[in-house]
Amino acid sequence: MNDDPITAGVRRDDPQPLYRQIKQRIREQIDRGELGTDAKLASERELEKQYGVSRITVRQAVRELVAEGWLHSHPGRGFFVARREEAYELHLLRSFTAIAEAHGRVPASRLIDGRVCPAPAEIARPLFLPVGADVVMLKRLRCLDGQPMVLTQDWFAAGLVPGILDLDWSTGNRSLYAEIRDRYRLRPDSGRTTLSARLANEEEARLLELAPPAAVLTVEQIAYDPQGRPVNMTFSSHHPLRYPLSLDQRGQKDAAGG
């Protein structure tokens, strides 16, 4: 291993770990277009020689670039630059499925949790319910082309959606809002959206394939029917690189969220 203080732009006197420096160099190559979409990354052996570091250091850098969506792996072939995601419009009244299909992606979902429970104050108040009232909570992992993108948690007053947990939410891409529109005759018509960002918690990092510490984009939404009554609340955590957001200002009135 090279003992020079500087090798290929990596400094051993830098307080930042070597693997993070290598990550940054590779990301800079991608940003500058030196490594374009689907370009093959140099092999671990070549990177080890180029940067004068150990194989384990190279693997840590590459592993995190994969987890953060910069690279993807082809077993037996190596690592390739991932497609840089275009921004996905954020619209309360347009569904995840509709947005995915408009972008030519294949949506899917996986059930993480579904239950009836007493409403905590932060859920009860916006749903116009007393604290402790029965609410339905449905947590799903939303995917595009097999990659996890968004972790969503939907809350409903239990009386609005009787039997909704008896439906099979474990496979496929069953649309939550198609169900509440067609089965329960609920019509989201307006609402409020709040955007923020924070560090991913352990569950989010694991399900969204993020290497901690990593940030997630968070969205809190509440939808109302035409009479101004709450339909549901949704909390979602978005992979910041795979699913960047843009605000959609158009007046579309499609099904919200599901």
Automatic annotation (TrEMBL):
<dbReference type="InterPro" id="IPR036388">
    <property type="entry name" value="WH-like_DNA-bd_sf"/>
</dbReference>
<dbReference type="InterPro" id="IPR050679">
    <property type="entry name" value="Bact_HTH_transcr_reg"/>
</dbReference>
<dbReference type="InterPro" id="IPR028978">
    <property type="entry name" value="Chorismate_lyase_/UTRA_dom_sf"/>
</dbReference>
<keyword id="KW-0238">DNA-binding</keyword>
<protein>
    <submittedName>
        <fullName>GntR family transcriptional regulator</fullName>
    </submittedName>
</protein>
<dbReference type="InterPro" id="IPR011663">
    <property type="entry name" value="UTRA"/>
</dbReference>
<keyword id="KW-0804">Transcription</keyword>
<dbReference type="Pfam" id="PF07702">
    <property type="entry name" value="UTRA"/>
</dbReference>
<keyword id="KW-0805">Transcription regulation</keyword>
<dbReference type="Pfam" id="PF00392">
    <property type="entry name" value="GntR"/>
</dbReference>
<dbReference type="InterPro" id="IPR036390">
    <property type="entry name" value="WH_DNA-bd_sf"/>
</dbReference>
<feature type="domain" description="HTH gntR-type">
    <location>
        <begin position="16"/>
        <end position="84"/>
    </location>
</feature>
<dbReference type="InterPro" id="IPR000524">
    <property type="entry name" value="Tscrpt_reg_HTH_GntR"/>
</dbReference>
